[in-house]
Amino acid sequence: MANEEPQEKKKVEVDWSRRQFLIGTGALTVVGLGAMFLNEPVAAAVRSVFGQQPESGPITVLQGDYFYIPNYMTWRVGDQISMTIHNTSTTHFHEMQIGRGFNTMPTALQTIRTQFAEDFWKGVPVTITAAQGIDNFVTNEAKISSDVHPTPWLLTQPGNGGFSPTMKPGGQITLSFTVPNKPGIWHYACFVQGYMHWLAGMRGTINILPA
Amino acid sequence: MSTLELRPDISPVPQVVKSKRMPPVIRGILWSAIGFLVINTLISYVLDPRYGHPFITQVSITFGWFAAMVGWVLGVGAWEGAVLPAFGHHGTLYTAPGWKRFFEYSTEHKVIGLQYIGSSAGGFFIAGLAAMLMRLELMNNSMWLFNYPQQYLTTVGIHGTIMMFSVGTVALVGGLGNYLVPLMIGSNTSAFPRMSGISVLLVPFGIVTVALSPLLGYWSTGWRGYEPLASQDPSGILFYYLGVFALTLSSLLVSINLTATVIFKRAPGMTWGRLPMFAWGITTVSLLNIIWLPEIQLTFVMSLVNRLVPLPLFTATGSPLTYMELFWLFGHPEVYIVVVPALALWQEIIPVMTRKPLFARQWGVIGLIFVMMLSGFVWAHHMFTNMRNVEMMPFSFFTEMISIPTGFAYLVALGTLWRGRLKFNTVSLLVLMSMFNFLIGGMTGVFLADPIINLQAHDTFFVVGHFHYTIIGGMVFSWLAAMYYWLPKMSGRMYNERLGKIGAIWIFLAFNLTFSQFFLLGLHGMNRWVSVYPSYLQPMNFETSIFAFLLGLGFLFHLVHIWWAWRAGQKAEGNPWESKSVEWITASPPAEESFPVIPRIVSSTYTYDNDEPAVIIPSDGKRVATTS
Amino acid sequence: MSDVVLFGILWVILTILGEIGVSLWGHNMYYYMASTQAIEGNHAAIFLMIFLTPIFMFVVLMLFFVPFRFRAKDGDRKVKAATFKTNRTFISIWVTVSVCVNVLFFIHPTASAAEMMFQEANPANQQNTLIVDVVARQWQWYFSYPQYGVTNTVNANGFNDLYLPVGRKVEFVLRSYDPNHTYDPNLDVVHDLWIPAFGIKEDVIPGETRFMYVTPNVITSFEKNPMVRVQCAEVCGPGHPYMWAPVHVVSSSNFATWIAQQKKQNG
């Protein structure tokens, strides 16, 4: 084996700034850590500083595994809302209940939250203006005023749990309603698959402002 | 030949240019960001726009990530160091003085080795922090630290992935291998220095990728990425595939480089029969890497494409089992990739410390080679819970048989220890501890190799205890021993013996008290990947966590100690262990050109039964071409 | 030579102590056993421990013996280390013993216990086997008893519940899919049915039907010992830790009562 040294290029010593290096990498580390661990507090802080305009008209709520976009909404009593809920997951079905307080089921591991105790939709007139890829739809005590074609997924009587449209992967539904006079903080969540989606963080908050 | 030590000639003072340049790491990050933005924008807005026009889609981030990787590598210095020369452009390669060499592109194997060691240590402490978070969560049997279970699972995944692919596979091979193998065989360079300079840059990039994976969503599969769960996970798992790709690519390049180095770069007289055990270990483990790393890379690329297209390769319509087979086909050789260099380290260090010739050297080599070969026959023992009955027996058989060549490492080590004159210092203490820990790891492996016991212990903390005994106990303890042993070579300074021993005993106790309880937890019903568990397991988990924190602190103690010794320790003698190995005839730390004159090896380097040198510097030796 | 004698004596003593330890503790290894399979596994483990103890003691003793007995005193250069590079007898014994022990382990307990396991699965041996259909979905277990026409057994809270009669072999038929959402067969993932007290587990894989055989031999329940539970042992997403169900092993008459009650619930 002939010992052929590769033709090395001339090496010239040129210094670089230690300060730039440390400040640059340090700043990026801080940004990275902040993005990883502080996104929720930062979002809450931004919201509290800038407030949020009440939404009305057509709004979209995207469902994913296991989250909502957005996970915070502001509504105002009396506004007309047309809410499209779209399940963007390719593998899981998702629902959207809105309510307050929890019904629970005790198990040996821990007490599990099964659904909201107080249903936001109780007595609220709702019109279904579009629906596709629906897994099932529990109307509970909402007043469904539209004439949707009778489908096997529609469960209209109370006693099947809280008002909740459940979408198959890719499914979506549009609900039109006037925000009822129920101001305050409400929550929305998905409790499907052994009530695990709520545990996995599929939750959101609605702040309903008085008219 | 009274003194073997060589002082390098004073090289001509390099020309110093006053003007400054951007720190290479910062330029790498900048180029990386530019690469990502350009490609990501191109894909998400022009080539493959998606519903709702999101800026980041799974496809765009995958290709954007590749652009970022290229930008990073070129920006740090591969542009001037490797790309321009490939096009015949003979520009100037800038180097910075002092410690700054370690933060830029380099072709010098010793700098690269230390870059690898530093990156691995960084990965070790990032992943170690993840482990601490896991143990903190497990102190209580309900969710209290993390908000959601998948945050815990992501932590598990980050811990496992970074530990396996940037520490276990890298520290001893890319790190010590790059630093020591050329020195041990009397060569001034590795075979492919430019490729080596690029490969090391992939390690920090891969670590950061995996560590930042939660930004894209919490993934829940742990380090194995089992399908079809992986295809259901949020996009965070993309950074698992991509990060592992960068890390395994790095290890693959290291292995090609070091195998070629051992084959082609040996000094005169360094025959295969005299090749140091560590070089043998690196050769066998490099062959394992060359065989199996492409396999896992292809598997992960398939998983990635399966997800992006999407395809049903590994779902119920495809075959979930296929993914497991492909994963473990690599996965079991992987644990030998981690451990084989550690076994070789015992055999390298013990003869020096006992002043005795290596016992049964050929059996040691046979052991390493047979472990390498058999490791490809045992993968499905990870799958006793999901394989067909007819497949169990051959895998169980080979799994039990592989303990025979592994045992040869003990045969050699114990035979060398017997009736030697052991220098009882931090180094030999850590080697003995490593042998103890790996013994427990190996013996619990015998239980796991038995299907009927495996069906109880599999997927429980018993298995977790078992592999932490082999990997921390075997590999990390040996890595620490090697760091103390070669510290005088790398830094020219000596560690503090008392602090070293205190640290060794500290981590030994904390390690054993932590992981021995894992066996009991597993047998008592503690399954893996759970952040919530029945309350009867809580007391033992609580105390296990306490010992785990002590273990973490112990490793931190060693880090600080080595750091301190490196900078301010006592000046070491040239050859403090009176080793006969080739690396100790160089200056400490070695100059850029380790051997101004290529040495000649005249006998095995383990001949501690006589005082004859094993290495001589030929007085008529040709000076090798210098770089200036 | 005195080193060898001293080492040998210490080794024998340690081995005896170790074997005493194995005989005292070995049967506790599984903590709680409620099936013949768990007992078999425990026997296999004890057998391994008996043979591994001398080997373990040999190496561990060596690791302690060396620093005490063969330690170089500081600055003492008069005592030289031995110079042997090989020892044919020692190597022959080492290689022979390690080959023999490993072959032994493969024959017994590995192959012998596996053979018993395979016999359990033999279709010829299923005269009185209780069949339990297990469906795993994210993140719940459904149990059905096709021989009794009972599907999806639940307790008073509506939580999935598994009852088994004592002393009767059970065949778990394992499938992974979502029985309530059958429109997409690709929805579910790999789970693992583990009952810690039964000493056995088996993966549940989408697209496959798999079997697990177990014979409960003690009347017990989750309330008596929390190891008597079904636990998912293969990571299956965020709900993985919550994917469990209580197990009750009851007398055959109590089992019949329970089945009748479930039948009534099933309507």
UniProtKB/TrEMBL annotation, chain A:
Family annotation (PROSITE patterns): TAT
Transmembrane regions: 21-38
InterPro entries: Cupredoxin, TAT_signal
Transmembrane keyword on record: yes
Record key words, sorted: Membrane, Transmembrane, Transmembrane helix
Designated name of the protein: Uncharacterized protein
Organism for this UniProt entry: Ferroacidibacillus organovorans
UniProtKB/TrEMBL annotation, chain C:
Coiled-coil residues: none
Origin superkingdom: Bacteria
Cellular compartments annotated: Membrane
Class of enzymatic activity (EC top level): translocase
GO cellular component assignments: membrane
Family annotation (PROSITE patterns): COX2, COX2_CUA
Chemical reaction(s) catalysed: 4 Fe(II)-[cytochrome c] + O2 + 8 H(+)(in) = 4 Fe(III)-[cytochrome c] + 2 H2O + 4 H(+)(out)
A Pfam match: COX2
Swiss-Prot/TrEMBL keywords: Copper, Electron transport, Membrane, Metal-binding, Translocase, Transmembrane, Transmembrane helix, Transport
Gene Ontology molecular function: any one: cytochrome-c oxidase activity
Membrane-traversing stretches: 42-68, 89-107
Domain Cytochrome oxidase subunit II copper A binding: 127-261
GO process terms (BP): ATP synthesis coupled electron transport
Record-linked InterPro entries: CcO_II (IPR045187), CcO_II-like_C (IPR002429), Copper_CuA (IPR001505), Cupredoxin (IPR008972), Cyt_c_oxidase_su2_TM_sf (IPR036257)
Chief site of localization: membrane
Stated role: Subunits I and II form the functional core of the enzyme complex. Electrons originating in cytochrome c are transferred via heme a and Cu(A) to the binuclear center formed by heme a3 and Cu(B).
Protein name per its UniProtKB record: cytochrome-c oxidase
Lineage of source species: Bacteria, Bacillati, Bacillota, Bacilli, Bacillales
